[in-house]
């Protein structure tokens, strides 16, 4: 069994097995307990994990997102008595953070590792309580719905030497339904991970990017070279949610978050307006958790463009980078020194101020939207 499978097994066991106050139950036999602790310490990849603040996430899932506990854990179960790790499918290392990603068997949830101490400590110590309270009172928020937060239970060699990620978040997958659409022969869904491109990116901007491979530069950010055509009411609802969500993030010093945008081409025989008004008749719009409630149309389930060509979904991701943590402070010092001594290139998206990042992020979002007024003029 390789590294991805061992990491997946530790995640699945933490989600599925009974626990007490978020910690896995210990064997009742003293000898078995000693052997379990010994095995856990020398584990390199299959770390013993626990749920962090399980009652809070359980309340969000059950009370506010109407997600049944059995349905939730079923997503992580393997088929036909297979090994536990088969309940998750590895989808690779993505981006510069070194994060690993998994998808549940039914594609409803994603598991993302949060390996950097500055990020998982920020979420645990600073943002978790405001996030839980905010998500309970803002059902139409675009912040990604985090269903569980996993952390280490005890010390192990794998954690000491960073051979396996120690923290993971379980979140909704707004790409849910893509595989089914592909199997039906429908057009593949498009997606973009959008951040403001006007910041200084060393990989792109030093020596015009000649010192970095194209593969590395392609991981920096996406660009959406089109418009989301919305009615005035759709646009107002989108901008209101974006402003409220980013206000929360700015208040807690978060920067470098992104807008994950999904575009689904409307089937030729099914106009977008009909998809939005009759979700029960369309495979494009989910009618069950994790995407609902509230009832469609929402930016989680799919919003029909005003020109009838597409269904759009959107979510705000990766809001774990906070300016007051040690690593961000160090990066800010380096970039300030670069601007002072070498070239005045301005801040990076990870070194700017929260309010300034919010301003550019909202500007980016407004620039990709075209409002189609009721009289047909935009």
Automatic annotation (TrEMBL):
Biased composition annotated in UniProt, kind: Pro residues: 287-297
Biased composition range(s): Low complexity: 277-286
InterPro entries, A to Z: PInositol-4-P-4/5-kinase_C_sf (IPR027483), PInositol-4-P-4/5-kinase_core (IPR002498), PInositol-4-P-5-kinase_N (IPR027484), PInositol-4/5-P-5/4-kinase (IPR023610)
GO cellular component: plasma membrane
Keywords, ordered alphabetically: ATP-binding, Kinase, Membrane, Nucleotide-binding, Transferase, Transmembrane, Transmembrane helix
Record domain PIPK: where: 1-369
Annotated transmembrane regions: 31-49
Keyword Kinase attached: yes
Protein's UniProt name: PIPK domain-containing protein
